Amino acid sequence: MISELCVHDPDRGTTEVVLRLEGARVEAPNWHPEGALVVNQGGRLFRVPLDAPRLLPVATGFAALNNDHGPSPDGRLLAVSDKAEAGASCIFVLPWPDGAARRATPLAPSWFHAWTPDGAGLLYAAARDGGPVTVASCALDGGGERLLAEGFDHADGPDATPDGAWVWFNGERDGAVDLWRVRPDGTGLERMTEGDTVDWFPHPSPDGRDVLFLSYPPGTRGHPADLPVRLRLVPAEGGRARDLLAFRGGQGSINVPCWEPGGRRLAFARHP
Predict the structure, then answer these.
(1) Contact 212, 263 (CB under 8 A)
(2) pLDDT in tens, 49-80
(3) Cβ distance 209 to 236 under 8 Å?
(4) How many domains does one find in the chain?
(5) Residue-range definition of the domain harbouring residue 90
(6) Contact indicator for 248, 227 with CB cutoff of 8 Å
(7) Neighbour tally for 47: CB within 10 Å
């Protein structure tokens, strides 16, 4: 097994391999405001300084985290998803770079995907009362949960535009998995991509111009690993998507927000 942690500049068309590992799977890079990437390796989180790339453990207190994690916009907090305590995934928040975790979502299952731009709330996937997985939001203390996507067989991967005006997500209806956006209050639902590819994990750029996402081959079920996939950009107000890169990946490539804070570069993982 080979893992490559990469940084891509879509405006210049350049890709840098930051870290290459053999025999270990590195997944789900975030870009911390301090200038390091945060990744999952074997259920534990690690920090990868870009000036001297290597895996430095992050003390979360959890040993079997999934790929749903991310630093707050100011870098002072870290959100993670873990199921050990409740038997189903819950979101926990802890100080960065270490400290005691507290449970942020009282209901389970809940899988973290993004912070609200003001750092006061969380966006996540959730299943409630026997219903399908959908996208949800709540305050940082877990209050005021709102389910944002009705009428989908599965909705996942929410992330907000930098002005907080929209929440993007991937939604499945009638076998088609496309990108959608909705207002934070659950109104104004719009389909933003349409085609035969299976589109997952939208991430609006910090400047609000574009939305990054991952396209699987037609007919893909779920979001598996180790398939031929493409990273693509679509204009934030809609339009024709363009391809950035094609590689072997999928699960773990861009599960969580991965843009450089305030910049135009992005991080991703691939497994050639």
Answers:
(1) no
(2) 999 999 999 999 887 898 999 999 999 999 99
(3) yes
(4) 1
(5) 2-270
(6) yes
(7) 18
Report the Cα–Cα distance between both ends of the chain, in Å, rounded.
8
User: Tens of pLDDT along 109-119?
Assistant: 999 999 999 99
Nearest to 256, CA basis, from 245, 247, 243, 269:
269
- Please tell me the distance from the alpha carbon of residue 74 to that of residue 59, in angstroms, as a whole number: 19
Alpha-carbon distance 204 to 129, whole Å?
30
Rounded to two decimals, the pTM is 0.97
For residues 180 and 189, is the Cβ–Cβ distance under 8 A?
A: yes
Residue 270 to residue 268: CA distance in whole angstroms: 7
Whether 69 contacts 30, CB under 8 Å: yes
Which CATH number characterizes residue 14's domain?
A: 2.120.10.30
At 261, list the tokens: 């804070």
